[in-house]
């Protein structure tokens, strides 16, 4: 059942992100959090798709919810690709991911602004495998999941 497979893969991806964060102690940057939003949207939609797919008369609803989830996953793929490009210095990232967004009038104001904050830069690669960062892998996987979801949603 494709919605169940997509749900399982999406849950594995978000659990993997939490694993890197809490077990691997790799604090995510702002753009890492943006990538998670796609899964936060897709997972409940896919859960509904799985539930309605169990009723053979609700096939159109299962495809509709899977299609919406696929759109969320494809959006996540674009966000992840943008983040990967920032990491590889292909284009600039948002200012909120740089220390420049914490510039203050005085040294005391600057120290007060960053006190207790762990600033994680969006343009640094905290982990990679075969030269591909986590954002790069997330983009590839999200694209594959999204296309799989679109194929299922458009199947009659």
Number of helices: 5
Give the N-to-C terminal Cα separation.
14 Å
Biggest sheet record: 2 strands, antiparallel
* Overall pLDDT metric: 85
Poorly predicted spans? none
How many separate domains?
1
Q: CATH architecture, please?
A: Up-down Bundle
Oligomer: single chain
The amount of beta strand, in percent, is: under 5%
Counting helices, strands and paired strands, the structural category is mainly alpha
Radius of gyration: 19 Å
Please explain how this structure is put together:
The chain has 5 helices and 2 strands. It has helices at residues 2-23, 30-53, 59-87, 107-114, 134-154; strands spanning 128-129, 132-133. Helix content is 67%, strand content 3%. The protein has 156 residues and is an all-alpha fold.
Fold blueprint:
Elements: H1 2-23, H2 30-53, H3 59-87, H4 107-114, E1 128-129, E2 132-133, H5 134-154
């Amino acid at each position: 059942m494709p919605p169940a497979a997509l749900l399982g893969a999406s849950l594995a991806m978000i659990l993997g992100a939490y694993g890197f964060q809490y077990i691997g102690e790799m604090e995510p940057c702002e753009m890492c959090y943006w990538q998670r939003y796609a899964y936060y949207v897709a997972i409940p939609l896919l859960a509904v798709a799985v539930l309605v797919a169990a009723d053979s008369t609700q096939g159109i609803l299962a495809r509709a919810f899977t299609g919406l989830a696929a759109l969320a996953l494809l959006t996540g793929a674009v966000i992840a690709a943008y983040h990967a490009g920032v990491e590889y210095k292909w284009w600039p990232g948002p200012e909120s991911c740089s220390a420049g967004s914490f510039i203050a009038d005085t040294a005391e104001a600057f120290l007060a602004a960053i006190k207790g904050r762990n600033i994680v830069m969006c343009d640094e690669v905290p982990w990679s495998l075969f030269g591909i960062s986590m954002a790069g892998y997330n983009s590839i996987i999200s694209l594959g999941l999204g296309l799989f979801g679109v194929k299922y949603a458009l199947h009659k």
